[in-house]
Amino acid sequence: KYFVENMLYWALAVVVLAVIGYFIYSQLVVSPYHETTKTASMTLSVGDPAPDFKSSDQHGNSISLSQFEGKSVVLYFYPKDFTPGCTKQACAFRDNYESLAATGAVVIGVSRDDSESHKSFGQKYNLPFYLISDSDGNIARRYGVGASMFGLLSGRTTFVIDGRGKVRDVFSSQLQIDSHVQHARNTLQRIASENK
């Protein structure tokens, strides 16, 4: 009887571990919106052409990458409006907006939130740049931006795209929020010096 009970416990433990393992595997590998070795190969790299996209901003205007041809674009993906980290990041881009715009760059924030949420977010924090909706995650997938923390958070990745549509910098970090702006500013300054 003791042997049978032990075997049942072991069998239950194996089943539980298998279920947990499958969940982690599905979150990290199967889902196209997640940050994995599989999607890492699809993540855009420096020198790659940036995919065009079309979406609506916080004012309901249609926004596409191609409409900014000839200008550098800072395209930053973030998880969600009004959350502490995303608010800090948005305010960092706001506080550095003049120096970024002085290089001729356009700043675009992207999340799954709808235009109404973006409008409220932009108004509350006086954000002077575009916030576009990626409700189905299609733009993020095209840029290879995955989720982190086992799929619990949408990705936080910043791309700097030059006026010819080439990716010049990619920075991804959930926690080093201020570094997104620093990377963007440094890359824009480098592009501006090349164009002199």
Kindly describe this structure:
This protein is α/β, with parallel strands linked by helices. Helix content is 42%, strand content 16%. It contains seven helices and seven strands, in the order H-H-E-E-E-H-H-E-H-E-H-E-E-H. The protein has helices at residues 2-30, 37-40, 84-95, 97-101, 115-124, 138-142, 177-194; strands spanning 54-56, 62-64, 73-77, 106-111, 130-133, 157-161, 167-172. The strands form two sheets. Strands 5-4-3-6-7 form a five-stranded mixed beta sheet. A two-stranded antiparallel ribbon has the order 1-2. Helix 5 links the parallel strand 4 and strand 5. Helix 3 packs parallel to helix 7 (177-194). The N and C termini lie far apart (83 Å). Mean pLDDT is 83; it is low at 22-41.
Shape: globular
Number of helices: 7
Mean pLDDT: 83
The level of helicity is 40-55%
Tag the structure with descriptive keywords:
single chain; alpha/beta; two-stranded antiparallel sheet; 5-stranded mixed sheet; globular
Topology:
Elements: H1 2-30, H2 37-40, E1 54-56, E2 62-64, E3 73-77, H3 84-95, H4 97-101, E4 106-111, H5 115-124, E5 130-133, H6 138-142, E6 157-161, E7 167-172, H7 177-194
Parallel strand pairs: 3-4, 4-5
Antiparallel strand pairs: 1-2, 3-6, 6-7
Helix pairs in contact: 3-7
Brief overview:
This protein has helices at residues 2-30, 37-40, 84-95, 97-101, 115-124, 138-142, 177-194; strands at residues 54-56, 62-64, 73-77, 106-111, 130-133, 157-161, 167-172. The chain is α/β, with parallel strands linked by helices.
